[in-house]
Design brief:
By secondary structure, this protein is mainly alpha-helical. Helices cover 68% and strands 0% of the residues. It is elongated.
């Protein structure tokens, strides 16, 4: 099994698991934009058609071998919300820390050094 496949499988078990980030739902509830199940469904559909589409395009580019640091710059440009960029980088930094502990590798060390605040 590839390292990438193992990271995807382990993602929910690591401290930086993707399940730990709601994509802004808490903020939307706090601001009164999500008040009921219908609002939440609309919010999730919107996320799927925006952030979901961007994530799918980035995943396809990563599978084609695009440079991860270049992909990070593309992800940053396509994440207009400062709060979401900060959360994504924090999760990326946590995932990188866990990956480096599980699979020591100079390439991971170099990528972590290139993005000390974390990568998307």
């Amino acid at each position: 099994m590839s390292r990438a496949a193992l990271l995807v499988l382990a993602d929910g078990r690591f401290p930086a698991g993707g399940h730990a980030h709601s994509g802004g739902a808490e903020e939307a509830v706090g601001a009164g934009r999500i008040r009921d199940a219908g609002d939440l469904a609309a919010f999730c559909r919107g996320r799927l058609h925006t952030a979901g589409l961007v994530a799918a395009a980035l995943a396809a580019a990563a599978a084609d071998g695009t440079d991860p640091l270049a992909l990070d710059e593309v992800a940053d440009a396509r994440t207009p919300s400062p709060a979401l960029r900060t959360a994504a980088r924090r999760l990326g930094r946590q995932l990188m820390r866990a990956a480096r502990a599980a699979w020591p590798d100079p390439a991971l060390d170099a990528r972590a050094a290139a993005r000390p605040r974390g990568a998307h």
